[in-house]
Amino acid sequence: MASNINDLSNDFPILDQQVNGERLAYLDNAATAQKPRQVVDSLVHFYEHDNANVHRGVHTLAERATTQYEEARKKVQHFINAADNREIIFTKGCTDGLNLVASTYGEQNIHDGDEIVISIMEHHSNLIPWQQLAIKKHAKLKYIELSPEGTLDMADAEQKITDKTKIVAVAHASNVLGTINPLKELARLAHQHGAIIVGDGAQSVPHMPVDVQDLDVDFYAFSGHKMMGPTGIGVLYGKADLLREMPPYQYGGEMISAVYRDRTEFADIPFKFEAGTQNIAGAIALGTAVDYLERIGMNQVAAKEQELVNYVLPRLEALPYVTVYGPQDPQAHTGVIAFNMDKLHPHDVATALDAEGVAVRAGHHCAQPLMAALGVDATTRASFYFYNTQEDADQLINAIKATKEFFNGGTI
Ligand code: PMP
């Protein structure tokens, strides 16, 4: 059971390969993280030894599956310091969790003339559910804008969040700019005005210690696959009293306590929100990913990523043909770095980098309103995780230099 942060090579066989004849530098972690052997083994072990449906059976396998599934819920609870394991709802992913809140809490609490405040740096999955809810309910959707430094403009937040605001929904960390947003401060502002706050933790939970009680967020959603768990599993944290007041999201098996011909009594939380057979193996393997991260320590994870950003950001910014978006200060940054190379289309850049073994993403990163605010159609994005190395960072910088050479000798 290796998990020395400086020697993780045995845990991630996928990283030890060549692509296009070059060493792989996987820098697309904001899209999805690689899975250590321990997580893959946990999936295989479940299916080879314990596979059964949860909660319904009395036989041994069903009990084993149920115990592991509920243990995974407790692991997640402790990982984000939720007060109660019933506040942890397993979802399909971050998108699913955010839609759940918009469709239940939102449906119940947003009325004509109410206001919902989000930020201009939201991923579409923390934007469209609120936009559509606002359209349906004749509510107003307001955006907190960016400061010139690429951070959230908190003076604008103070203006936009008013007594008309019912919901504030903001990313804890941006999937494009790498900005870490002051969620605790936003929660305080929201609560001052009687609104609730929803945090999008997709780009924060995998990368830094998160304490939902300290943040005082009402809801907080994230995805398993970005923190080395499998795809198709995610988490919605919600304060118990709010969750209990909300109507169910979906109806079916598992989420009931009694069904009659003409009515249904719903189960208590969290089961009220887990209709149908869940991604049992996925939840258990997510628990294994949590174990893995805890063994390393989230402070260590954050420190390692900070070290990589401290190294790579100034080197990128020093290239005169590269524009970096987001905060200049490495301390205000996660391992997500979006940039453009003069006149080159980001897709061409990503393709050229791939030829050098560097896996990055290009496009609008599901944040089109942010792209419009930045005045671009797309960017290239490199995103680091704690298992990346300085060698990966050097490979990125060298590949960018080689790309510039390739496209007509430096006149791009
Ligand atoms: N929010 C942010 C900030 C994200 O980066 C992502 C994934 N790119 C999501 C939400 C949605 O996550 P998923 O696609 O796993 O549901």
UniProtKB/TrEMBL annotation:
GO-annotated biological processes: cysteine metabolic process
EC number(s) stated in the UniProt entry for this protein: 2.8.1.7
Molecular-function annotations in GO: cysteine desulfurase activity; lyase activity; pyridoxal phosphate binding
SUPFAM superfamilies: PLP-dependent transferases
Top enzyme category: transferase
Catalyses which reaction(s): (sulfur carrier)-H + L-cysteine = (sulfur carrier)-SH + L-alanine
All copies of domain Aminotransferase class V, residue ranges: 26-396
Keywords: Lyase, Pyridoxal phosphate, Transferase
UniProt xrefs under CDD domains: SufS_like
Cofactor section: pyridoxal 5'-phosphate
Any Pfam family hit: Aminotran_5
InterPro entries assigned: Aminotrans_V_dom (IPR000192), Aminotrans_V_PyrdxlP_BS (IPR020578), Cys_dSase_SufS (IPR010970), Cysteine_dSase (IPR016454), PyrdxlP-dep_Trfase (IPR015424), PyrdxlP-dep_Trfase_major (IPR015421), PyrdxlP-dep_Trfase_small (IPR015422)
UniProt function note: Catalyzes the removal of elemental sulfur and selenium atoms from L-cysteine, L-cystine, L-selenocysteine, and L-selenocystine to produce L-alanine.
Family named by the database record: Belongs to the class-V pyridoxal-phosphate-dependent aminotransferase family. Csd subfamily.
Protein name (Swiss-Prot/TrEMBL): Cysteine desulfurase
Gene source species: Limosilactobacillus antri DSM 16041
